[in-house]
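BUG: 3D viewer hangs when loading the predicted structure for this chain

Environment: internal workstation, default settings.
Expected: structure renders.
Actual: progress bar stalls at 90%.

Input used:
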Amino acid sequence: MINPLPYLVIVPLAAGFFIPVFGKRIKPLGGFVAVAAMAALFLLSVSTAYLIRIDKVLVYNVGRWSAPVGISMVVDGLSCFMLLIVNTVALLVSFYSVEYVKRYTDPWKFFSLFMLMVAGMNGVLLSGDLFNLYVFLEVAAIAAYSLVAFGVEAVELEAAFKYAVMGAVGSSFIILGIAFVYSSASTLNMADIALSIADPASNKVVLFASVLFLMGFGLKAALVPFHAWLPDAHSSAPTPISAMLSGLLIKVLGLYVIVRIFFNVFGMSPKISMILISLAVISMVTASFLAFGQTDIKRLLAYSTISQVGYIMLGLGVGTPLAIMGALFHLFNHSIFKSLLFLNAGAVEEIGGTRDLRNMPGILARSPLTGYTNLIGSLSICGIPPLGGFWSKIIIIFACIQADRPILAFVAAAVSIMTLGYYFKAVTPILFGTAGSSAGKAGKKRLPPAFALPLVILALLSVFSILLLVPGIGRQFLGDAIAVLVRGKEYAGILTGFVK
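Structure tokens produced before the viewer hung:
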């Protein structure tokens, strides 16, 4: 079978450059090409998962030059887990976008940037060395900056400028960290770095690089106190891009790289674990308090994202197998229900004519599908059983108790109650609001089919995500990803044999 790894980058890059050539003349072509390319990427992700079911690792050496001299694309259980999430959610968002971008004059530009962002994310997940990881990270980030400003209104331009400035600061920390690692290890291949740095805790150069990475990738992940760009960017961006940023981008450019470096390259140390836990707790609590004061749906969802990323980081910081399982399961759940909620916010605005919670006309009566999918996403993020969000949160809480950290378990439970509080404040007017504002009357009477299908699929995934915990079903998808992190630096020794 043909190795699918290079095509996971080639297909979106080709689509991103093909769309401008013909999309300017044939306007519907941009959306068609984007959806077709995403469908191909979804199938390539599934075939990748099929191929690694036995060897657990799949490698492609670019130009047939073996690592560390050449560039290697590498997929293991963790990156395969992320690839499936990214390309599934992006496929649904691209389908939603076909209808959404009709409000803009040049939809082909939107889809071209969209495909470049997906190419960057896939490239980050496939990179076997730090330099190419950085290159793909910048491709995705620059496309994201442009997409946040796509509506070219003053608020959108301001948000994109803030995002770009903060992103450039984070990227500067990252490239400096890479330079320091190279000066110590004399290689950029991640498996080689793990083998050449025997004791990162006693290597001052690596310790300094670790601090730079935590600041740089912490900013990409929007952990408090590196979060200032996120509320403006996520609330001002076009709705499909808000879903991509919150559901996928911060996880790939931030969380994924953090866990890859600190679990598989440097190895998790007690100090790093404590830092991750501290950032997690601060993010969870601070963002929850800030969410209570929001009246704009998308801004509330943006602050909620910061809090939920804190849950994921808490599980990773605790670092036991059960905690890692809870963290990765919550990462999956959050990618699904937060994408659902942002896309639903666009549907609410389409039907109700407003995003202001104080002027909601009541969506449930106007569009039951919009109302019920909003309810499913909200209940899942609040941790209401039997939805997926409940199980991932309860696993993280039990993992904290198992690790003899009851205070962390209490904080996680308390933040979940706070989440229920501010979502109850939001969902009530969305579903049952009675405001008769002119804004409310301006909305459409029917939800476009291109909006409805992604909402239904994401809602179903939120309901049935519990199946990932069933041994026969979830072992290949979730179990292999957990195993990569549990093995830590030992995994680099296994990986080196495949890469070389």
